[in-house]
Design a protein that fits this description.
The protein is an all-alpha fold. It is built from nine helices and no strands. The longest helix is centred in the middle third of the chain and has 19 residues.
């Protein structure tokens, strides 16, 4: 990637971040049974249930967030997910939001460049905890291509809405690419070759979060 500056003047405040989380929760809730079915094939058959419970709790938590800035909103969501989502998903998605929030610090409005940096920090949090890379059949397989697409779009002077839409599609493609993979991390790795042929539920949830981001930055929701 080159070092061109991002020219979009979009600014995301705390209210926008809360709308993103509400959309994340809605996407997870709508796909809860599908996520659980995916997890039944290669995991503990509880991913959708756990993620739905965690994001529902996050929505309740944010009702008391008041006018918290974007970073504080994401950190609160991360902490809620850590404590309310079971299995490995809670710590991983929790780390994602916590680190993204910490990256934003106390700024009142996040620029597209800030959003990119925050999502990069979120990926660092996920990988720092789970040590997964692309091809391991995990969250990372959707997250990395989404982040790369977002950065490519912004560096090409797309506005945040266009770049986020590209990121969502790249995340979906990343999810599809997990199907033939043999899992090398997480619960699914215990199945060895039998994990191949199944879509990864964690990557699927990750794509839903990027879909929600694309929706919230595209305009009023």
């Amino acid at each position: 990637m080159n070092g061109n500056s991002v020219r979009d003047d979009t600014q995301l405040d705390g209210a926008t971040m809360r709308r993103w989380i509400r959309l994340c929760a809605a996407e997870i809730a709508a796909n809860r049974d599908f996520l659980t079915q995916l997890d039944a094939a290669i995991g503990d058959a509880d991913h959708g249930i756990n993620m739905d419970r965690g994001f529902s709790a996050a929505i309740t938590e944010l009702e008391t967030a008041g006018d918290a800035p974007p970073g504080a909103v994401l950190e609160r969501v991360g902490s809620t997910l850590v404590y309310r989502v079971g299995g490995a998903s809670g710590p991983l998605f929790g780390a994602m939001f916590r680190e993204a929030g910490a990256s934003l610090g106390t700024i009142e409005r996040a620029s597209p460049e800030d959003v990119l940096s925050a999502l990069r920090a979120g990926l660092d949090g996920v990988q720092g905890l789970g040590a997964a890379v692309e091809g391991d059949k995990t969250i990372v397989d959707a997250y990395v291509p989404a982040l790369q697409a977002l950065e490519r779009g912004l560096r090409a002077n797309q506005d945040l809405a266009e770049a986020a839409a590209s990121a969502a599609e790249a995340a979906r493609e990343g999810v599809r690419a997990t199907v033939p993979l043999q899992a090398r991390k997480g619960r699914a790795s215990y199945l060895g070759p039998r994990s191949a042929g199944h879509q990864d539920p964690g990557a699927t949830s990750t794509a839903l979060l990027f879909v929600a981001l694309a929706r919230v930055v595209s305009g009023p929701t």
